[in-house]
Amino acid sequence: MIPYQGRGVKVLVVDDIDSNIELVSGVMEGCGYHVLGARSGVEAIEIYQKERPDIAIVDVMMPEMDGFQLCQALKDLSGRTFLPVILLTALSDTDSKIKGLECGADDFISKPFNPRELIAKVKALLRLKFLYDELEHSENIILTLAVAMEARDPYTKGHSSRVADMAFEFGRSIGLTENECESLRKAGMLHDIGKIAISETILQKPSPLTPEEMQKVRQHPVIGEHICRPLLSLQSILPAIRHHHERWDGKGFPDALRGNKIPLFARILSIVDSFDAMLSERPYRRAMNFSTAIKKMSSEAHLNQWDPELVEIFLRLLTEKAGEIKERWYSSMF
Description:
By secondary structure, the protein is α/β, with parallel strands linked by helices. The protein has helices at 18-30, 41-51, 67-78, 94-102, 115-151, 159-173, 178-190, 200-203, 211-217, 220-228, 238-243, 264-279, 290-299, 308-320, 322-331; strands at residues 10-14, 34-38, 55-59, 85-89, 107-110. Helix 2 packs parallel to helix 3 (67-78).
């Protein structure tokens, strides 16, 4: 059975001419799809917000809000959810197609359209949507697993969420794009997911770890990378997960990377992770207060654990926004 084929699939058809809507609707309904018709961009947006269709077929030449503008609006509204948009157009010039692609269009159908071609393109995009939704579902399972893993340990509860949020803010402060910051946040949420393979006895041990126990703990970045590797949507953050315990001087693990050979996201996570660890209660030591943790990180900045330029920026960020960050940090701990 083709995913998203037949009943249950909602197709948004947008055109300012009723007969055009009826024509496209007839083709879609013949495949068993449920059609939602809209005669303007504003009406289409209202329908999208209420019904959340699976795919949209949009006429380009409409008054007030044209198909290009509507496509962009629908893509913005859908956010991380993949909403395929097909532009139906009599325009065949290259500039129009480029403009459509820039607005996020996933495919084009020329007028007058061939019903078989339209059906084939709709089915192809619905298959793609099915795959995206499955990936999103799998990614959410892993993120939920990360949260559930921390919930079992009172010493690390909320740690990854705090690291994720602070990494996002840190990324913004050094000029990363919004997409890069979101990836960094995701990496923060998942950086310790590999600890799920390590026994609670070791993780919560109040006395020093044996060499064998320490070796097991040092494998958690590698295990975390292996857990996340099957998902295409997590490929860009795998280096951050694997290398967040590397050190600037090359004495970290698991690969003893040195200096700028450590991926940027991993260098950022290393700093934020260390700071949160200082603020957190551990079986083997008490938590530091906010001011003491800043002083400790500042005093150890020269020891080559962290990227020297990044740690200075981070300390400056903590100092400039101390009240705001401190309140948010501690509110997430309780």
